[in-house]
Amino acid sequence: MWETIKNAWKIEDLRKKMIFTLAMLLVYRIGSFVPVPGIDVSLFQQVIDEGGLLGFFNIISGGAFAKFTIFAMSITPYINSSIIMQLLTVAIPKLERLSKEGEEGRKKIAQYTRYFTVILAFVQAFGITYGLARTSGALLQNNFWSYMVISLTLTAGTAFLMWMGEQITEKGIGNGISLIIFTSIISRAPLAVIQLFRMAFQTNDISPLLLPVIAIFMLALIAGVIFIDLGQRRIPVQYSKRVVGRKMYGGQSTHIPMKVNSSGVLPIIFAVSILAVPQTIAQFMSQDSGFVTWVTKYFSQSSALYAILYALMIIFFTYFYTQITFNPVEISNNLKQYGGFVQGIRPGKPTSDYLMKISNRLTLVGAIFLAMVAILPIVVAAITGVAMSFGGTAILIVVGVALETSKQLESQMLMRHYKGFLK
To answer: Could you say which of 91, 215, 247, 281 is the most buried, measured as most Cβ atoms within 10 Å of its Cβ?
Structure first.
């Protein structure tokens, strides 16, 4: 990867794109320290440290949520909006037709996603502001006008990040939204390392001998994520020869790539969001109520019930998302239309059944892998007593974005040097 970046830097066009991307990410990090007016941050810092959905927001925002800055909500509303629109595309015929209309249809869906992001961001910002004000009393002036100012500020920050991400995608290197999340997670790495060393050598909360064990565990986890993320099953496809006029078409062999982890990190995000609902509700209730006691006992991240439900929901959502995004019948029909067939399988329904069987097997491996990646940090934290700052979600995002950005750099370098490969 470092060799790829070094070679890309020597190309003027790519160097400009890389500088533009770094400049945009620098603006994002500077904005992560600009506070929202009318908030006493110290009063609800403890609420954020308790984890749950708010702790997940803090990881995604690179610590900006705990400081309640203008980028406190980060790009989370845009991610939620994109996921909802993707699911609605399958359910609503009009959106499904738009998705099949090519570039113009995708632009329309992207426009709807932006509008929905702003609406969702405002609703989310108002709810968080109202909830935190009641729980911690962090608002300096507890009135409707303060709620509106804070909510509009947070919404504007999310809208700006959405625009920035699109600019990076268009004029820079890589996917802008993914790089913003990547930067947020990576920015917390030095603090996590410093905190770990303090626990080992200053406060003596853990043994220094645990540090190399934790380092080996993290490296093994990253290596496993890279191995599975790059893993795919290639289905061989043969196209029959056909004569059109005086020209002959087809006859070539290709393959259908089917990734082991085709759903990415989305099942973990879905599972975290649903399991965090009881914790989030409990934070806004009286601490003496029976519901809060029950949630604290059974829905804390260190409990066995939480880990079991977490793993089962990840497996369920992996299958659910794969069933929505992968359509073997459509693939089979397209192959049949263009004279293609899977070697050894008859066209039509046998092909779609074969693809579905392969997809189910790969999804099972991917689902078990995602569940293990998500559960292992919880198990290690329970054994060692050290809270893992970077869970499975963070590692999957960081590794996935790094690999994808590296691939984009390599593909753009290949486009600029294709003559040398043809000689």
So the answer is: 281
Per DSSP, 152 falls in state: H
Given a contact cutoff of 8 angstroms between Cβ atoms, the answer to whether 162 and 78 are in contact is: yes
For residue range 6-29, list pLDDT tens digits in order: 777 778 888 888 899 999 999 999
Contacts of 262 by beta carbon, 8 Å cutoff, 6+ apart: 322, 325, 326, 362, 363, 366
Nearest one of 117, 187, 172 to 394, comparing CA atoms: 187
Ramachandran angles phi, psi of 294, nearest 5°: -65, -45
Q: CA-CA distance, 189 to 196, in Å (whole number)?
A: 11
CB 277 within 8 A of CB 334: no
pLDDT (tens digit, 9 = 90+) per residue, 364-385?
Answer: 988 898 888 888 777 777 776 6
Sorted by where each starts, the structural domains of the chain and their CATH numbers stand as 1-188 (1.10.3370.10), 199-389 (1.10.3370.10)
Q: b/e string for 362-390 if b means 16 or more Cβ within 10 A?
A: bbeebbebbbbbbbbbbebbeeeebbbbb
**Cβ–Cβ contacts within 10 Å for residue 331, how many?**
20
Please name which of 276, 50, 40 lies closest in space to residue 136, comparing C-alpha atoms: 40
Helix (H, G, I), strand (E, B) or coil at 254: strand
pTM: 0.78
Do residues 266 and 79 touch, judged by C-beta distance below 8 A?
Answer: no
Structure token digits, residue 348: 């039509």
Beta strands in 130-249 (DSSP E): 232-239, 242-244, 247-249
